Structures are given as structure tokens and as C-alpha cells.
Amino acid sequence: FATGFSIAAFHAPAPAMIGRISGNQVGKGMSLFMASGELSRTVGPLIAVWAVTNWTLDGIYRLAVIGWVASLLLFWRLRSIPARSEPAGSLRAILPALRTLYLPLLTFVLFRNFLNVSLTTYLPTYMKSLGSTLLIAGAALSILELAGVAGALLSGTISDRLGRKPILLFATLASVIFMLIFLNVEGWLVVPLLLALGFSTLSTPPVLMAIVQEQLPNHRALANGLFLSMSFLLRSFSLLAFGYLGDSVGLEAAYLISALLSLLAIPAIFILPQVQATQT
Questions:
Q1: pTM, 2 dp
Q2: 224 vs 94: CA distance, rounded Å
Q3: Among 30, 79, 160, 167, which has the highest number of CB atoms less than 10 A from its own CB?
Q4: Phi-psi region of 112 (alpha: psi -120 to 50; beta: other; left: phi over 0)
Q5: Alpha carbon of 157 to those of 29, 104, 106, 237, 276: distances in Å?
């Protein structure tokens, strides 16, 4: 609970602050934000494996110092940037957007989440089930997240020029295709498939947050907080559902089902509010 509260306290206002200073390049701002997060998740599994190997699981708490230092730096550097663009936010002010904006957004997230969380959470377990060592399993997740850095960095920036919907559509279709291929390859071919999967699967969050920021520019923090709250709830559901599915039919079959479920996110893209490219 404490960890979840900490995550929410950061992720609700931070994108709003970035959106506030990004001008007409909100997608680029969200890309830089998400790419940094993916970079940390690239290094994280390797550091975690090293810590467990040297300190055992009981000693991994020492890594918390990194988080404490980062929090102090964030406070010092961002203390003068407001998280909201008007004196106060009101839930009533964004109620009209619940149907037109949040319903298609969350429908998209619901079906995309199965593939997203299955990779970022269960990939090491899947690799271990195939006979990989703990180091290889952790490295697989790092490769996936490393490609996610590039995907997150480029997706929002490109969507500033080409529009949000085309990027969401491309990423969804590409991730499904790469997932189906990934389940049927072995050996060194796994590496380029993990890169392709990470690039396509982890590239949509900056675009989604840019859409929220653009549609509700006067209520950035509240709008983003509501979106992330709903997204976190859906993520929890997806984690449980995939875990149950993996125990029932096996992780490989669960991955296949998750990829096919992602296709159901496509109709939600077309009913999103019209969003124009903001940079020429």
C-alpha cells in the first residue's frame, strides 16, 4: 500500500508538470518522461539480480537509498513548477469527458494491458520456464525495456507531427505481430524479437498521456490523476487475470490469448476525440 501510494503521488502530478512546460510539443514531453522511466526499468532488473546474488533477498532493501536520493533531487529541482494550471481542480469540471475521452481510453488500456503487463511482469518467469538462468531471464526483461526506451522516446515525439491515432494503431498491430513471432522462435532470434516487442508494446503510454493533457489543458493534474488511477486498477485486474490464465493453460498459451485480446483495443482508437498533430 505504501509503495502504491508513493507511485501514485509521483505519477499523477509529474506528467501535468511536464505538460505545462512542453508548450505545443506535449507528445515530446511525455516521451522524455516515459523514456526515462523505461530506462530505469532497463537497468533495474540487472541491479536487482546483482543485489540478490550478493546480498540475498533479505538485503535488497539497501537499494532503497537510490529512491530516497532521487526523491530529494526531484523535490529540489521541481519545487517551483506548479502541477496545475488554474487555482483549483474540480472533478465536476471533467465529468463531460468521462464518456467522450475516458471511456475509449480505458477500453484501449484494458485490452492492451494484457500484453503489456504479461511482458513486463511475467517475462522472466516465462524465460525461466524455458530453461533460462536467472541472469538470462533478467537480461531478457532488460532488453525488452531498453527497446521500450526508444519506443517511448519516439512515439510521443512522432505523434506531435503525424497525430496520436496513427501511432496508437501502428503500435497495437505491430506488437501483436511481433508477439506471435516471438512465441515461435528460439535461440538468438529471441533478442531481436524482444527489441521489436519492447519498442512497439511500450510506446503507447506517452501518446495516451499526451491525449489527456491536450483534451483537458486546464485540469492537467486532476485529469492525469484520474486516468492513471483507472489505469492502475485495470493493470491490477490484468495482472491477476493473466496469472490465473497462465496457471490454467500455461504461459505460452496465455501470451497468445493476450496478443489476440490486444486487437480488441483497435476500435477504441477510432472513437477517441479528434486530436490533431500539434507541430508542423
A1: 0.75
A2: 11
A3: 30
A4: alpha
A5: 8, 22, 22, 30, 13
Q: Which three cell numbers stand for residue 112?
A: 492492451
163 φ, ψ (degrees, to nearest 5): 100, 155
Write the single-letter amino acid at 90: S
The answer to whether the beta carbons of residues 23 and 160 sit under 8 Å apart is no
DSSP code of residue 50? H
Evaluated on CA atoms 22, 156, 147, 102, the torsion sign reads positive
**What does the pLDDT look like over 153-187, one tens digit per residue?**
888 888 888 888 999 999 999 999 999 999 998 88
Percent of the chain with pLDDT over 70: 93
What does the mean pLDDT of the chain come to? 83
- Using a 10 angstrom Cβ sphere, with 0-12 exposed, 13-18 middle and 19 or more buried, the burial of residue 265 is buried
